[in-house]
TrEMBL record:
PANTHER family on file: PROTEIN DISULFIDE-ISOMERASE A6
Protein name, UniProt field: Protein disulfide isomerase (Thioredoxin), putative
MF GO annotations: isomerase activity; protein-disulfide reductase activity
Database matches in InterPro entries: Thioredoxin-like_sf (IPR036249), Thioredoxin_CS (IPR017937), Thioredoxin_domain (IPR013766)
This protein's record includes keyword Lipoprotein: no
Thioredoxin domain span: 119-241
Domain of life from the UniProt record: Eukaryota
GO CC term (a single one): endoplasmic reticulum lumen
Signal peptide start and end residues: 1-20
Keywords: Isomerase, Signal
A Gene Ontology BP annotation from the UniProt entry: response to endoplasmic reticulum stress
Amino acid sequence: MSRSFLRALFCVVLLKFALTTSYYKDSKVLEVKEDDFDNKVKSFKVTLVKFYNESCKKCVEFSEVYKNLANIFHDLVQVLAVNDESLSKKYKVKSFPSVKLFLGNGKESEPDVVDLDEDKDLDDLVSFTLKTLKKHVKQRASKFLSKVFIIIRLVKFYAPWCGHCKNLEPEWMSLPKKSKGVKVGRVDCTVHQSLCSQFNVKGYPTILLFNKGEKSPKTAMNYEGQRTSADILAFAKKNDKALSPPTHATSVSDLKEKCSGPLCLLFFFNPSTKEENLKTLKSFSSKHSAPFALAYSMVGENEQWQRVFGLKEFPAVVGLNLAKGVYLPLNSDFSKSILSGKVTGNKLSEDLKDTNDEL
């Protein structure tokens, strides 16, 4: 046997080993063998399974889509990958990769199996999987939506028959390539009518921007500009510093967690006006974008802070930059302007420009 043949054989074996061991390393996908497969799919109510073959080029390309699918669904369903000829025959897999949804009926019964179309992109797979899940795990649908909207920032609500939606598609698909920081998704309103109604979608396409971790229709920002990737991306970046709701800080560790940016506004509320002040501050944070964080403490809750900041009149607000270890008490007029509910995020950012420089 020649050395060149042995070298080629070794390379093939090495490549095969690399493919089978690196597909889903450090991901939410669990690779299983035949002897453990039945136990896995029967023990869970819902399991996503990808059948693949290591020699399949399309399987390699699809692995990234499947890993992203697993990231979205892993805390709702079990996500498996199978490279086994006998299992592929048992479940009538005709081509690779093939994705199926297994719906468990208990350990004594065979699971129901639903075929998914591996030719779909990630958004369509998410949509189709959710549609199937709704029949079997309705009580967990709201948790799924929360998960999706935490991951996805820009969402396109559309209808398959809509001409404007079809024209937008190439621009929409190019967004992730132009900016990795902007996560996009889509909702088919002919499938998810109640969801589209919840977000007050009246025409197609409707594009909404969500704050990080934010899911409320009241705080979703409606995009009304030109339907080009450049304009949509500019809108997303401009509003990327949307305010998060104010958080209650009772300790130094709270401040370090909630006020880690270059500027944080720490409010001190009187107990008697707490509810009113907090309501105004939450309303402000839900409507405006500004490059700082909001936190609050109650008067008397941490008297050491009040002494260090030299606060005597309340409500009061202090600008903090914990990275530099500096602070600046802001005047009472500034505090009143925010708590009046009349100031805008842009105006506040302008007013704070000098403060930010000082900090």
